[in-house]
Amino acid sequence: MRGAAAGRPRVLAPVLVLALGVAVRTGAGAGLVTCGSVVKLLNVRHSVRLHSHDVRYGSGSGQQSVTGVSAADDGNSYWRVRASTAGVCERGTPVRCGQSIRLTHLGTGRNLHSHHFASPLSGNQEVSAFGEDGEGDYLDDWTVMCTGTYWSRDSEVRFQHTSTDVFLSVTGEQYGRPIHGQKEVHGMATSSQNNYWKVMEGIFMQPSDVFKAEQYHAEL
Questions:
Q1: 157 and 151 in contact (C-beta within 8 Å)?
Q2: Cβ distance 169 to 192 under 8 Å?
Q3: pTM over cut 0.70
């Protein structure tokens, strides 16, 4: 996998998102996670946010590492919610429970990814960040497991890897240098309290007019 191009202006991405997105607080679709939104995801049990950076694993795939960090203000913990590899999800469309999506790391443009490599600390399934400029492969797809119809920002959800069925998890193993104190993020074959995530900080795209119209007619 190629490294990030030198000098790539990744830092401009949050500015672009701010120009395009609006936080939704009231009205139809308030409190829903929508495609195009940029979010931080907290592992509920271990209180760490899903994180990545241009540091590669020294074993396994050698791809970009994905970890959990306790700091709430770390800019490398933002992920953009996007359609699955073969799917379509218009900006502002609420994400349905059971829908497959991609989570693209805002800072490096690589997608949350998993595959049959062992994770370096626990020996569970490795989770990495993969691709270039948001384009990787089908192993970037994750299914949002939640209750109800749509992924709500105040709900605890699980992310199940669409191809291998593991759940995105943290079980507390901690790295040393060069990412001292960060927690391992990996895939687990079984559902447990280690699998639950909640949206925290973020920039949320306003629900689309089509969705608002559907909600209006459903209420009549």
A1: yes
A2: yes
A3: yes
- pLDDT per position as a tens digit, 88-108: 999 999 999 999 999 999 999
Q: What is the DSSP string of 88-154?
A: ---TTPBPBTT-EEEEEETTT--EEEEEEEE-TTT-SEEEEEE-BTTB--GGG-EEEE-SSSB-BTT
Q: State residue 16's pLDDT score.
A: 39
- For residue 29 the two structure tokens come to 């679709």
Confidence (pLDDT) at 207: 81
* Whole-number Å distance between alpha carbons of 101 and 39: 14
How large a percentage of the chain has pLDDT more than 90?
A: 79
**SS in 3 state form for 1-59?**
CCCCCCCCCHHHHHHHHHHHCCCCCCCCCCCECECCCEEEEEECCCCEEEEEEEEECCC
Give the tokens for residue 111.
């997608």
Q: Is beta strand 125-130 parallel, antiparallel or unpaired with respect to 79-83?
A: unpaired
* One-letter identity of residue 46: H
pLDDT at res. 178: 86
Query: Which pair of structure tokens corresponds to residue 127?
Result: 């989770």
Per-residue pLDDT at 158 exceeds 90: yes
117, 168 Cβ separation under 8 angstroms: no
- Measured in whole angstroms, the distance separating CA 194 from the mean position of its chain's CA atoms is 16
DSSP letter (8 states) at residue 65? E
Q: Using an 8 Å Cβ cutoff, are 157 and 99 in contact? A: no
| Better-scored residue on pLDDT, 213 or 220 | 213
